[in-house]
Amino acid sequence: MKNFISLRTCFLACAFVSSAFAADRVVGANATLDMEPGARSAALGSATLAVEGDYLGLGTNAYQLSLAKYMWASFSHTAYYEDTKYDYASMVIPLPKKQGIGVSFSRFGADDIPYIRDGEPVPEGSNYNTLSIADWVFSVAWGRRFIDRLDLGIAFHVLYRDMDQTGWGFRGDASARYQIMDDFYVSGLLKGWTSSAATWESGEFEYSAPEFYLALSYGLPVEYLYGKFNFYWQSAGLFHHEARDLDFDEDTHGGERIWEDPLDWLSGGRGGVEFAFDFGLKLRVGLSSFTTFKSVTAGAGLTIANFLVVDYAFESHPVFSPVHRVSISFSPYLFGHKPREEGHLSKTDAAKKLVTEEPEYLPAEEYVEERIQETPVPVEQTPKAPVNQSVPAPEKPAVTAPTAPATPIVETDDEILE
Protein backbone atom coordinates (compact mmCIF):
# COMPACT_ATOMS: atom_id res chain seq x y z
CA MET A 1 0.00 0.00 0.00
CA LYS A 2 2.81 2.37 0.84
CA ASN A 3 4.52 1.56 -2.46
CA PHE A 4 1.26 2.36 -4.29
CA ILE A 5 0.93 5.73 -2.51
CA SER A 6 4.55 6.68 -3.23
CA LEU A 7 4.15 5.69 -6.90
CA ARG A 8 0.96 7.74 -7.14
CA THR A 9 2.71 10.71 -5.53
CA CYS A 10 5.59 10.53 -8.05
CA PHE A 11 3.13 10.32 -10.93
CA LEU A 12 1.25 13.40 -9.75
CA ALA A 13 4.51 15.29 -9.24
CA CYS A 14 5.68 14.46 -12.78
CA ALA A 15 2.30 15.50 -14.17
CA PHE A 16 2.52 18.82 -12.31
CA VAL A 17 6.06 19.49 -13.58
CA SER A 18 5.12 18.61 -17.17
CA SER A 19 2.09 20.88 -17.03
CA ALA A 20 4.16 23.71 -15.55
CA PHE A 21 6.75 23.36 -18.32
CA ALA A 22 4.44 22.38 -21.15
CA ALA A 23 6.10 22.70 -24.53
CA ASP A 24 4.22 24.02 -27.53
CA ARG A 25 5.33 22.82 -30.95
CA VAL A 26 5.42 25.77 -33.34
CA VAL A 27 6.78 26.58 -36.79
CA GLY A 28 9.79 28.87 -36.92
CA ALA A 29 10.90 29.04 -33.30
CA ASN A 30 13.99 31.27 -33.12
CA ALA A 31 13.34 32.42 -36.69
CA THR A 32 16.02 35.08 -36.28
CA LEU A 33 18.59 32.29 -36.69
CA ASP A 34 17.30 31.71 -40.25
CA MET A 35 18.02 35.24 -41.44
CA GLU A 36 20.63 35.67 -44.16
CA PRO A 37 23.58 37.80 -42.96
CA GLY A 38 25.93 37.61 -45.97
CA ALA A 39 25.46 39.79 -49.05
CA ARG A 40 27.03 37.21 -51.34
CA SER A 41 24.63 34.42 -50.38
CA ALA A 42 21.68 36.83 -50.31
CA ALA A 43 22.39 37.88 -53.91
CA LEU A 44 22.32 34.19 -54.89
CA GLY A 45 18.77 33.70 -53.66
CA SER A 46 19.95 32.87 -50.11
CA ALA A 47 21.13 29.44 -51.24
CA THR A 48 23.66 29.67 -48.42
CA LEU A 49 24.14 25.94 -47.95
CA ALA A 50 25.63 25.61 -51.45
CA VAL A 51 27.87 28.71 -51.25
CA GLU A 52 31.43 28.03 -50.09
CA GLY A 53 33.75 30.83 -48.97
CA ASP A 54 31.07 33.10 -47.46
CA TYR A 55 32.13 33.15 -43.81
CA LEU A 56 29.05 35.19 -42.92
CA GLY A 57 26.99 32.01 -43.30
CA LEU A 58 28.63 29.91 -40.61
CA GLY A 59 25.30 28.98 -39.08
CA THR A 60 24.24 27.17 -42.25
CA ASN A 61 27.43 25.79 -43.79
CA ALA A 62 29.91 25.29 -40.96
CA TYR A 63 31.62 22.63 -43.08
CA GLN A 64 33.46 25.37 -45.01
CA LEU A 65 35.68 26.01 -41.97
CA SER A 66 37.74 23.00 -43.06
CA LEU A 67 38.81 25.10 -46.09
CA ALA A 68 40.02 28.09 -44.06
CA LYS A 69 43.67 28.87 -44.80
CA TYR A 70 43.99 32.13 -42.87
CA MET A 71 42.04 34.27 -40.43
CA TRP A 72 39.09 36.36 -41.63
CA ALA A 73 36.91 38.98 -39.95
CA SER A 74 33.54 39.74 -41.58
CA PHE A 75 30.83 42.34 -41.02
CA SER A 76 27.42 42.95 -42.60
CA HIS A 77 24.59 45.46 -42.30
CA THR A 78 21.02 45.09 -43.55
CA ALA A 79 18.26 47.70 -43.52
CA TYR A 80 14.80 46.12 -43.36
CA TYR A 81 11.33 47.62 -43.27
CA GLU A 82 10.30 50.32 -40.80
CA ASP A 83 13.88 51.06 -39.70
CA THR A 84 14.48 47.48 -38.60
CA LYS A 85 18.18 46.63 -38.84
CA TYR A 86 20.26 43.48 -38.81
CA ASP A 87 23.98 43.70 -37.94
CA TYR A 88 26.30 40.70 -38.01
CA ALA A 89 29.99 40.10 -37.25
CA SER A 90 32.04 36.90 -37.45
CA MET A 91 35.63 35.72 -37.19
CA VAL A 92 37.23 32.61 -38.67
CA ILE A 93 40.41 31.04 -37.27
CA PRO A 94 42.16 28.17 -39.13
CA LEU A 95 43.41 25.19 -37.14
CA PRO A 96 45.85 22.38 -38.00
CA LYS A 97 44.77 19.16 -39.68
CA LYS A 98 42.37 20.83 -42.13
CA GLN A 99 39.95 22.24 -39.60
CA GLY A 100 38.81 25.65 -38.37
CA ILE A 101 36.66 27.40 -35.82
CA GLY A 102 34.37 30.40 -36.18
CA VAL A 103 32.46 32.68 -33.83
CA SER A 104 29.75 35.19 -34.68
CA PHE A 105 27.60 37.80 -32.98
CA SER A 106 24.49 39.47 -34.37
CA ARG A 107 21.66 41.82 -33.44
CA PHE A 108 18.28 42.08 -35.12
CA GLY A 109 15.91 44.75 -33.85
CA ALA A 110 14.47 48.23 -33.99
CA ASP A 111 15.16 51.35 -31.91
CA ASP A 112 13.28 54.56 -31.02
CA ILE A 113 9.83 52.94 -31.11
CA PRO A 114 7.27 55.41 -29.65
CA TYR A 115 4.81 54.12 -27.07
CA ILE A 116 2.30 55.39 -24.51
CA ARG A 117 1.87 53.86 -21.07
CA ASP A 118 -1.59 52.83 -19.93
CA GLY A 119 -3.48 55.77 -18.48
CA GLU A 120 -1.16 58.45 -19.86
CA PRO A 121 -2.53 61.14 -22.20
CA VAL A 122 -1.43 61.28 -25.80
CA PRO A 123 1.56 63.65 -25.93
CA GLU A 124 1.60 66.59 -28.27
CA GLY A 125 4.00 66.65 -31.19
CA SER A 126 6.75 64.04 -31.14
CA ASN A 127 7.30 64.02 -27.40
CA TYR A 128 6.81 60.25 -27.09
CA ASN A 129 8.49 57.73 -24.88
CA THR A 130 10.63 55.32 -26.92
CA LEU A 131 11.77 51.75 -26.50
CA SER A 132 13.92 49.18 -28.32
CA ILE A 133 13.30 45.54 -29.13
CA ALA A 134 16.03 43.19 -30.30
CA ASP A 135 17.22 39.61 -30.65
CA TRP A 136 20.87 39.00 -29.73
CA VAL A 137 22.54 35.86 -31.12
CA PHE A 138 25.91 34.31 -30.31
CA SER A 139 27.14 31.35 -32.39
CA VAL A 140 30.11 28.99 -32.37
CA ALA A 141 30.94 26.78 -35.37
CA TRP A 142 33.57 24.14 -36.10
CA GLY A 143 34.43 22.31 -39.31
CA ARG A 144 36.89 19.64 -40.38
CA ARG A 145 37.75 17.38 -43.31
CA PHE A 146 37.39 13.81 -42.04
CA ILE A 147 37.97 11.75 -45.17
CA ASP A 148 38.92 12.60 -48.73
CA ARG A 149 36.27 14.79 -50.43
CA LEU A 150 34.05 14.96 -47.30
CA ASP A 151 33.78 18.01 -45.01
CA LEU A 152 31.68 18.13 -41.84
CA GLY A 153 30.66 21.02 -39.58
CA ILE A 154 28.69 21.70 -36.40
CA ALA A 155 27.25 25.01 -35.14
CA PHE A 156 25.58 26.01 -31.86
CA HIS A 157 23.49 29.14 -31.38
CA VAL A 158 22.28 30.92 -28.25
CA LEU A 159 19.63 33.63 -28.56
CA TYR A 160 18.53 36.28 -26.06
CA ARG A 161 15.30 38.14 -26.81
CA ASP A 162 14.44 41.53 -25.27
CA MET A 163 10.91 42.53 -26.24
CA ASP A 164 7.78 43.10 -24.16
CA GLN A 165 9.16 40.15 -22.20
CA THR A 166 12.58 38.54 -22.20
CA GLY A 167 13.39 35.06 -23.42
CA TRP A 168 16.13 32.62 -24.35
CA GLY A 169 16.60 30.31 -27.31
CA PHE A 170 18.94 27.54 -28.40
CA ARG A 171 19.61 25.50 -31.55
CA GLY A 172 22.26 23.15 -32.92
CA ASP A 173 22.94 22.58 -36.64
CA ALA A 174 25.05 20.04 -38.53
CA SER A 175 26.19 20.35 -42.15
CA ALA A 176 28.25 18.30 -44.60
CA ARG A 177 29.57 18.58 -48.14
CA TYR A 178 30.87 15.90 -50.51
CA GLN A 179 32.86 16.49 -53.70
CA ILE A 180 31.39 14.32 -56.43
CA MET A 181 33.90 15.50 -59.05
CA ASP A 182 35.95 18.60 -59.80
CA ASP A 183 33.78 21.72 -59.21
CA PHE A 184 30.66 19.64 -58.47
CA TYR A 185 29.48 19.33 -54.84
CA VAL A 186 26.44 18.11 -52.91
CA SER A 187 25.67 19.49 -49.43
CA GLY A 188 23.28 18.70 -46.63
CA LEU A 189 22.04 20.58 -43.55
CA LEU A 190 20.29 19.08 -40.53
CA LYS A 191 18.83 22.22 -38.95
CA GLY A 192 17.87 21.96 -35.31
CA TRP A 193 19.14 18.45 -34.62
CA THR A 194 18.90 19.45 -30.97
CA SER A 195 15.46 20.96 -31.82
CA SER A 196 15.05 24.73 -31.89
CA ALA A 197 13.80 25.68 -28.42
CA ALA A 198 12.72 29.01 -26.92
CA THR A 199 11.59 29.86 -23.41
CA TRP A 200 9.88 33.06 -22.30
CA GLU A 201 9.74 35.04 -19.10
CA SER A 202 6.10 34.08 -18.67
CA GLY A 203 7.09 30.40 -18.45
CA GLU A 204 5.94 29.45 -21.95
CA PHE A 205 8.19 26.98 -23.78
CA GLU A 206 8.22 26.58 -27.57
CA TYR A 207 10.14 24.32 -29.91
CA SER A 208 10.41 23.40 -33.58
CA ALA A 209 11.26 19.94 -34.90
CA PRO A 210 14.44 19.29 -36.92
CA GLU A 211 14.49 19.94 -40.67
CA PHE A 212 16.78 18.71 -43.47
CA TYR A 213 17.91 20.55 -46.63
CA LEU A 214 19.89 19.57 -49.73
CA ALA A 215 22.06 21.78 -51.95
CA LEU A 216 24.10 21.48 -55.14
CA SER A 217 26.89 23.65 -56.56
CA TYR A 218 28.73 23.44 -59.87
CA GLY A 219 31.54 25.50 -61.38
CA LEU A 220 32.16 25.93 -65.11
CA PRO A 221 35.37 27.74 -66.18
CA VAL A 222 35.03 29.95 -69.27
CA GLU A 223 38.51 30.81 -70.51
CA TYR A 224 37.51 33.14 -73.33
CA LEU A 225 35.57 35.27 -70.82
CA TYR A 226 38.44 35.20 -68.31
CA GLY A 227 36.26 33.86 -65.54
CA LYS A 228 34.05 31.10 -64.21
CA PHE A 229 30.32 30.42 -63.90
CA ASN A 230 29.10 29.11 -60.52
CA PHE A 231 25.62 27.60 -60.16
CA TYR A 232 23.94 27.17 -56.76
CA TRP A 233 20.68 25.47 -55.69
CA GLN A 234 19.16 24.80 -52.27
CA SER A 235 16.03 22.75 -51.65
CA ALA A 236 13.06 23.35 -49.39
CA GLY A 237 12.71 21.31 -46.21
CA LEU A 238 12.23 17.58 -46.71
CA PHE A 239 10.42 16.70 -43.48
CA HIS A 240 7.72 19.25 -42.76
CA HIS A 241 5.29 21.72 -44.27
CA GLU A 242 6.70 25.15 -45.00
CA ALA A 243 5.20 28.46 -46.06
CA ARG A 244 7.03 28.64 -49.37
CA ASP A 245 4.66 30.99 -51.23
CA LEU A 246 5.59 34.66 -51.01
CA ASP A 247 2.59 36.25 -52.73
CA PHE A 248 0.40 35.94 -49.58
CA ASP A 249 -2.79 35.26 -51.52
CA GLU A 250 -5.65 33.63 -49.67
CA ASP A 251 -5.79 30.77 -52.17
CA THR A 252 -2.18 29.74 -51.60
CA HIS A 253 -1.27 27.02 -49.16
CA GLY A 254 1.79 25.87 -47.32
CA GLY A 255 4.34 23.66 -48.98
CA GLU A 256 3.88 19.90 -49.14
CA ARG A 257 6.38 17.25 -48.17
CA ILE A 258 8.51 15.82 -50.96
CA TRP A 259 6.68 12.47 -50.91
CA GLU A 260 3.31 14.24 -50.96
CA ASP A 261 3.97 16.68 -53.82
CA PRO A 262 7.45 16.57 -55.42
CA LEU A 263 6.70 19.50 -57.75
CA ASP A 264 5.65 21.70 -54.86
CA TRP A 265 8.81 20.71 -53.01
CA LEU A 266 10.95 21.63 -56.01
CA SER A 267 9.17 24.96 -56.42
CA GLY A 268 10.01 25.79 -52.82
CA GLY A 269 13.73 25.77 -53.57
CA ARG A 270 16.02 28.71 -54.24
CA GLY A 271 19.15 29.31 -56.27
CA GLY A 272 21.43 31.67 -58.13
CA VAL A 273 24.14 32.10 -60.73
CA GLU A 274 27.47 33.84 -60.22
CA PHE A 275 30.14 34.81 -62.74
CA ALA A 276 33.55 35.38 -61.17
CA PHE A 277 36.12 37.23 -63.26
CA ASP A 278 39.78 36.39 -62.80
CA PHE A 279 40.60 39.94 -61.69
CA GLY A 280 38.27 39.77 -58.65
CA LEU A 281 34.87 41.09 -59.83
CA LYS A 282 31.79 38.89 -59.30
CA LEU A 283 28.28 39.42 -60.70
CA ARG A 284 25.30 37.57 -59.21
CA VAL A 285 21.57 37.01 -59.79
CA GLY A 286 19.09 34.63 -58.17
CA LEU A 287 15.61 33.78 -56.88
CA SER A 288 14.85 33.44 -53.17
CA SER A 289 11.79 31.34 -54.08
CA PHE A 290 11.02 29.54 -57.33
CA THR A 291 7.28 30.01 -56.73
CA THR A 292 7.34 33.62 -57.87
CA PHE A 293 9.61 35.74 -60.02
CA LYS A 294 8.92 38.69 -57.73
CA SER A 295 11.59 37.38 -55.33
CA VAL A 296 14.51 38.39 -57.55
CA THR A 297 17.92 38.92 -55.98
CA ALA A 298 21.01 40.50 -57.51
CA GLY A 299 24.37 41.82 -56.44
CA ALA A 300 28.08 42.14 -57.01
CA GLY A 301 31.33 41.58 -55.18
CA LEU A 302 34.91 42.78 -55.49
CA THR A 303 38.10 41.25 -54.10
CA ILE A 304 40.87 43.78 -53.50
CA ALA A 305 44.47 42.58 -53.15
CA ASN A 306 43.25 39.19 -51.85
CA PHE A 307 42.72 40.51 -48.30
CA LEU A 308 39.58 42.66 -48.67
CA VAL A 309 36.22 41.49 -50.05
CA VAL A 310 33.24 43.84 -50.47
CA ASP A 311 29.78 42.49 -51.41
CA TYR A 312 26.39 44.09 -52.10
CA ALA A 313 22.97 42.45 -52.48
CA PHE A 314 19.54 43.66 -53.59
CA GLU A 315 16.46 41.65 -52.65
CA SER A 316 12.99 42.35 -54.00
CA HIS A 317 9.80 41.21 -52.30
CA PRO A 318 6.23 40.84 -53.66
CA VAL A 319 4.72 42.75 -50.72
CA PHE A 320 7.34 44.66 -48.75
CA SER A 321 9.90 47.17 -49.93
CA PRO A 322 13.26 45.96 -51.33
CA VAL A 323 16.11 45.09 -48.99
CA HIS A 324 19.69 46.31 -49.40
CA ARG A 325 22.57 44.43 -47.82
CA VAL A 326 26.30 45.20 -47.58
CA SER A 327 29.05 42.98 -46.18
CA ILE A 328 32.82 43.31 -45.82
CA SER A 329 35.40 40.59 -45.17
CA PHE A 330 38.94 41.45 -44.11
CA SER A 331 42.00 39.29 -43.46
CA PRO A 332 44.70 41.02 -41.35
CA TYR A 333 46.72 37.78 -41.37
CA LEU A 334 47.69 38.31 -45.00
CA PHE A 335 49.72 41.42 -44.18
CA GLY A 336 52.50 39.54 -42.42
CA HIS A 337 52.13 35.91 -43.45
CA LYS A 338 51.61 33.80 -46.50
CA PRO A 339 48.41 31.75 -46.78
CA ARG A 340 48.57 28.41 -45.03
CA GLU A 341 49.41 25.77 -47.60
CA GLU A 342 47.29 23.18 -45.85
CA GLY A 343 43.81 22.57 -47.04
CA HIS A 344 42.63 20.18 -49.68
CA LEU A 345 43.07 20.86 -53.35
CA SER A 346 41.36 19.15 -56.21
CA LYS A 347 43.40 17.03 -58.55
CA THR A 348 43.32 19.77 -61.15
CA ASP A 349 44.58 22.39 -58.68
CA ALA A 350 47.32 20.08 -57.46
CA ALA A 351 48.45 19.42 -61.03
CA LYS A 352 48.48 23.15 -61.80
CA LYS A 353 50.54 23.79 -58.68
CA LEU A 354 53.13 21.18 -59.68
CA VAL A 355 53.38 22.60 -63.19
CA THR A 356 53.49 26.26 -62.26
CA GLU A 357 55.86 26.01 -59.30
CA GLU A 358 59.41 27.10 -60.11
CA PRO A 359 62.22 24.79 -58.95
CA GLU A 360 64.61 26.09 -56.36
CA TYR A 361 68.01 26.62 -57.98
CA LEU A 362 71.18 26.66 -55.92
CA PRO A 363 74.16 28.88 -56.69
CA ALA A 364 76.92 27.19 -58.65
CA GLU A 365 79.39 27.10 -55.75
CA GLU A 366 76.86 25.64 -53.31
CA TYR A 367 75.76 23.11 -55.93
CA VAL A 368 79.36 21.92 -56.48
CA GLU A 369 80.04 21.66 -52.76
CA GLU A 370 76.81 19.72 -52.25
CA ARG A 371 77.69 17.33 -55.08
CA ILE A 372 81.18 16.82 -53.64
CA GLN A 373 79.74 15.99 -50.23
CA GLU A 374 77.16 13.61 -51.61
CA THR A 375 79.38 11.79 -54.20
CA PRO A 376 82.02 9.51 -52.65
CA VAL A 377 85.53 10.00 -54.13
CA PRO A 378 87.37 6.71 -54.84
CA VAL A 379 90.78 6.51 -53.21
CA GLU A 380 93.49 5.05 -55.45
CA GLN A 381 96.18 2.98 -53.77
CA THR A 382 99.63 3.95 -55.17
CA PRO A 383 102.41 1.33 -55.10
CA LYS A 384 105.04 1.83 -52.44
CA ALA A 385 108.47 2.84 -53.71
CA PRO A 386 111.61 0.74 -52.85
CA VAL A 387 113.57 1.77 -49.81
CA ASN A 388 116.74 2.66 -51.70
CA GLN A 389 114.88 4.43 -54.45
CA SER A 390 114.29 8.07 -53.80
CA VAL A 391 111.16 9.74 -54.94
CA PRO A 392 111.86 12.99 -56.75
CA ALA A 393 110.25 15.98 -55.16
CA PRO A 394 107.70 17.80 -57.23
CA GLU A 395 109.12 20.67 -59.13
CA LYS A 396 107.89 24.05 -58.12
CA PRO A 397 106.75 26.26 -60.92
CA ALA A 398 109.13 29.05 -61.59
CA VAL A 399 107.80 32.42 -60.60
CA THR A 400 108.97 35.26 -62.73
CA ALA A 401 108.42 38.88 -62.09
CA PRO A 402 106.18 40.67 -64.49
CA THR A 403 108.11 42.41 -67.20
CA ALA A 404 107.21 44.84 -69.85
CA PRO A 405 105.58 43.32 -72.88
CA ALA A 406 108.26 42.18 -75.33
CA THR A 407 108.14 42.29 -79.05
CA PRO A 408 106.38 39.33 -80.64
CA ILE A 409 108.67 36.39 -81.57
CA VAL A 410 108.51 35.24 -85.16
CA GLU A 411 109.44 31.62 -85.73
CA THR A 412 111.33 30.72 -88.90
CA ASP A 413 110.92 27.59 -90.96
CA ASP A 414 114.25 26.16 -89.71
CA GLU A 415 113.20 26.48 -86.07
CA ILE A 416 109.92 24.79 -86.78
CA LEU A 417 111.71 21.85 -88.43
CA GLU A 418 114.06 21.45 -85.47
Report on the architecture of this protein.
This protein has a single domain, classed as Porin, CATH 2.40.160.40. The chain is built from six helices and 17 strands. The protein has helices at 2-20, 39-43, 262-267, 347-356, 364-374, 413-417; strands at residues 23-25, 72-79, 85-95, 99-115, 129-147, 150-162, 166-181, 184-191, 196-200, 205-208, 211-222, 227-234, 270-277, 281-287, 296-304, 308-315, 323-330. A 14-stranded antiparallel β-barrel has the order 2-3-4-5-6-7-8-11-12-13-14-15-16-17.
**Protein structure class:** mainly beta
Which sequence of SSEs, written as H and E, runs from N to C? HEHEEEEEEEEEEEHEEEEEHHH
CATH architecture: Beta Barrel
CATH class: Mainly Beta
| CATH superfamily heading | monomeric porin ompg
Residue-averaged pLDDT? 76
Sheet with most strands: 14 strands, antiparallel, barrel
What fraction strand?
A: 35-45%
Under CATH, the topology can be stated as Porin
Overall 3D shape: globular
- Please tell me how large the radius of gyration is: 36 Å
Layout of secondary structure:
Layout: H1 2-20, E1 23-25, H2 39-43, E2 72-79, E3 85-95, E4 99-115, E5 129-147, E6 150-162, E7 166-181, E8 184-191, E9 196-200, E10 205-208, E11 211-222, E12 227-234, H3 262-267, E13 270-277, E14 281-287, E15 296-304, E16 308-315, E17 323-330, H4 347-356, H5 364-374, H6 413-417
Parallel strand pairs: 1-10
Antiparallel strand pairs: 2-3, 2-17, 3-4, 4-5, 5-6, 6-7, 7-8, 7-9, 8-11, 9-10, 11-12, 12-13, 13-14, 14-15, 15-16, 16-17
